[in-house]
Amino acid sequence: MDPELEPFLALFPRADLSDPIAQRENFAKLATSVPAPDLAGVEVEDRTVPADPDVPVRVYRPRDAQGAIVWLHGGGFVMGDLETEHPWAGRLVQASGAVVISVGYRLAPEHRYPAALEDVWAVLRWAHEQASELGFDPQRLAVGGHSAGAGLAAAVSLRARDEQGPPIRFQLLNQPGLDDRQQTWSAVNFTDTPWMTRDKVTQIWGHYLGGRPATPYAAPSRADDLSGLPAAYIATAEFDPNRDEAIEYGLRMLQAGVPVELHQWAGTFHGSQALLSAEVSQRQIAEIGAVLRRALAP
Which of 43, 107, 120, 234 sits at 20 to 30 Å (Cα–Cα) from 153? Predict the structure, then answer.
């Protein structure tokens, strides 16, 4: 474990999602402890994307935007919203210079798969159609997220390829959750790692799928063909059950001819980039912004 992260371990709540309502409240409290980002020069607006039902989004528009990203919060498909993601969406827009469209997708278990994916699909199409009004080139549109949000970004990339949907230029997948089967080495062995454990991953997929069989649009690792997908950046944490499925997904995309940048962060755990005082966390956040800026450059 990175020595700067280790002192925080005792402060993290127990890795449990048996009561999603209570955990949403705890997640929101954690988010309020993160210092607000500097949004000088950034226009922030809450919008509603027409869909069935409508989808709330928060649009962050910097001056002279370098493209845009549909950004999807983490929280195991169960927690998170526009407010909890505000500290990270705000930092991403400042670091990348991109328009950031943060999505308040529906949460499980009240709204199981495919509700969240349908929300993301609606926002992706809306963003492409409204690119001129939002201030970016529709050919420079990315998708990305953290954890479950990164899994949704991978899933919507598969769907856009299969259905000839809006062109996606780039996937930014930070510690993605991609595989419900939990058969990789890290998924089997990381039973007591901080914030995310094997049991918590089991609860996540149980809430999201509701006992129904997973499809590739629910768990992208199940896709047989990864060719033709957008270029990707994948970041993983060393002590994370999701680590190996993300690395394997990146390797499979490489073998299918998709450009991929992989970064395995030594000494980190799932979500540890939120500990802003740690130098490794600062480097993680800076790198995500720099990678997106480079991917969306003219």
Answer: 43
